[in-house]
Specification:
Blueprint (H helix, E strand, L loop, with lengths): L1 H20 L19 E7 L12 E3 L4 E6 L9 E6 L4 E3 L15 E6 L6 E10 L4
Length: 135
């Protein structure tokens, strides 16, 4: 009975050794580095403190000019907004979003850099927020 167990165990150990020795490149965040060079924002939203959208309409995302224009409701607390980016597959955002962001200084728009899956292409997007006029 023991000799029948040796072959499957040997195969499993060989497979495990092969997989564990394969070098999967990861970045400083522990994310897999791929061969994808695409680097863009596909969607964007701003959430209020209640985690509901505060945008009036769909944002305008210009992937050539690398700008995002978004209009928020009148009366929105611009000091506590949570930006949400949808990125192309395998891309990442810098700086990371770890909480609410202050957008109250409308003359100084916020900037985030999208980094491609292969970590070689970087594009900085500028987010311009405007507030809906008083109804």
């Amino acid at each position: 009975m023991k000799k029948y167990l040796i072959i499957p165990v040997a195969i499993l150990l060989t497979a495990w050794a092969w997989v564990s020795c394969t070098d999967f490149p990861v970045d400083e965040d522990g994310l897999l580095i791929t061969d994808r060079a695409e680097c863009y924002v596909s969607n964007f939203d701003l959430l209020g403190t209640d985690f509901q959208t505060v945008r009036v309409s769909a944002p305008t995302i210009d992937t050539t000019a690398q700008t995002i224009n978004i209009k928020v409701f009148y009366g929105t607390d611009l000091k506590s907004l949570w930006p949400q980016f949808s990125l192309v597959t395998d891309a990442k955002l810098d700086p990371k979003i770890t909480g609410f962001v202050d957008f109250s200084d409308l003359s100084n728009p916020k900037k985030w850099t999208v980094i491609s899956g292969n970590r070689k292409v970087k594009k900085t997007y500028t987010v311009y927020v405007t507030v809906q006029e008083k109804p």
